[in-house]
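Suppose a colleague, Dr. K., hands you the sequence of a protein chain of 320 amino acids and asks what its three-dimensional shape might be. Before reaching for any lab equipment, you can write down a predicted structure in token form. Begin with the sequence itself:
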Amino acid sequence: MRKINLLIIAILLLTSCQKVIQTPSENPTAANQRPSSSMGNKASKLTICHKSASGNWNTIVITQGDLAAHLAHGDVVPDADGDGYTKVNPCGNGSQNDCDDNNAAINPGAQEICGNGIDDNCNGQIDENCNTPSVTICNQVWTATNLDVTTYRNGDAIPQVTDPAAWATLTTGAWCYYNNDPSTGAVYGKLYNWYAVNDPRGLAPTGWHIPSYAEWTTLIDCLGGVAVAGGKVKEAGTAHWADPNTDASNISGFTGLPGGFRRFDGTFYSLGQWAYWWTTTEYLLPGYYWYIDANSFSGDLSPYSADLPGDGFSVRCVKD
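The predicted structure, expressed as tokens, is then:
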């Protein structure tokens, strides 16, 4: 019995004396001793075009921490936005064809974004090859499809908001697909709240604008009035409109489609049955705005009021 007890004691002592070995990544003290990201940035290297005391320009490599002093001296960073393209610089470094070296999204390798009024690919042209389908009705030129953009005219992104609770609390511009289903976008375009319509950055492409109430009523009057104008702007048949799609002839060429709408509480309604389009005009009651609608069971094209800016409707544009 004495031998057994001594054996147990020996095992316990051996176990308690074993060391736990940690790798540096598992050691919290070691992790806390790593340099911060800001320290690392200051030590990182970058190439600049430096003007010497004699007035000559040459390429040198400096640390990030020294950059401010060199810029104050008049030195130049050929690729300030880090997109791989350089602006015109005294040292002649790189491509020298970046037309906006403060924006990495703008360079000769970028894709031109239609409707933002920016020369995205630095070829000296704005929105080239961006032909907006249009139709002339009486003395107005309208886009022939619903708006389907994700940026404002200046290139700023318009947020896509899918969550109903988030949509319900918006006070700024946003868009969504009907029922958050991207497949609807190719046919019906996007739904925008009125905050996007009214944003000073411009929702419509360059050369276009969102129509006012007066411009919509000009269209309605030109097509014979409220009771018949809807049939003349609706796409004919029931490929997209629900039966019976009353009086639909599309003789105007407007090709109106029933994109439905998103209510201010984030719920969706009426795809295939109703088309809703925003105007830019505020109603008599502050906080309410005019919109235009057409439906599958009449030939009406009607201006309606008293809708909240949080609703999501389709958008058509009129040429400036």
